[in-house]
Amino acid sequence: MATTQPRPGIAPSNSPAPSSSQPIPPLQGAWWKLGIFALMGFVIYGMFFIAKGAVDFVGTGDVARIVFFHVPVAVLTSLCYFSGAIYAGLYLWKRRDFGTDIKSATAMELGFLASILATITGSIFAGAQWGSYWNWDPREISIVGLLLIYASYLVLRGAVANQPIKRAQISAVYAMITLIPANFLIWVVPRLKVLQTLHPTTVLTDANSTSPSYKLVLLVAFLAFTLLFVWMFQLRNRFLLLAARQQRSRI
């Protein structure tokens, strides 16, 4: 009786992920990593000695200096999710490409970390600016909602850690399905007129609210945190590939 051969490039459903054949990306380009340290150093120095205070903040506007960290990290929460969803879609499209599954998981893990940092820095800002560390502001609600989506992804992935193919499939489907509620939390909830927000909406764009020096430091902060995300993404992706290859060698 003839036996059914597996299709080329697709591992059987009960086999481990084809991690042994997955190339490990090299870590190259030390110059731009040194540039990250330089940019971060500029942001730390600039927030105290270059940027002037911003209006509509308590006291002399010094509370606004936390924005140089809080806002870039908050933006990373959405950037990480979109990156993870894109790689999840590529995994489903390429039919079990192990590399894209690892990249999707890496982006979601970094997004979870960014959400925690955004929540903490936002709470510190709220306590100093509004006198309460939590106000159920629409943006506070949206970031916590996104944090829970990230956490659910990690819990779901950990529940099937011993089944790489199933884990990758479920994770990819979850990332694609939750793309709609994630976008709703990121772009819609903070802008609902029925939910009044305490967050200033024009302080970063209004020429009369922030000085050119303030905007300069903030732009550098966006660049620095984006490059830091790329670096962390490379390191974590490489670690997961190496761990998967080591696990494969033990089988």
Number of domains as seen in the coordinates: 1
How many strands, which pairing sense, and closed or not: the largest β-sheet?
none
The assigned structural class equals: mainly alpha
Order of helices and strands: HHHHHHH
Q: Rg, please? A: 21 Å
Unreliable stretches (pLDDT < 50, length at least 5) are 1-20
Shape: globular
Number of strands: 0
Proportion of β residues?
Answer: under 5%
Termini gap: 30 Å
Q: With helices defined by DSSP (H or I, 4 residues minimum), what is the helix count?
A: 7
Helix content: 55-70%
> Could you tell me the mean pLDDT?
84
What's this, in brief?
By secondary structure, the chain is an all-alpha fold.
Strand and helix map with partners:
Elements: H1 30-49, H2 67-94, H3 98-130, H4 138-159, H5 164-177, H6 179-188, H7 212-250
Helix pairs in contact: 1-7, 2-3, 2-5, 2-6, 2-7, 3-4, 3-7, 4-5
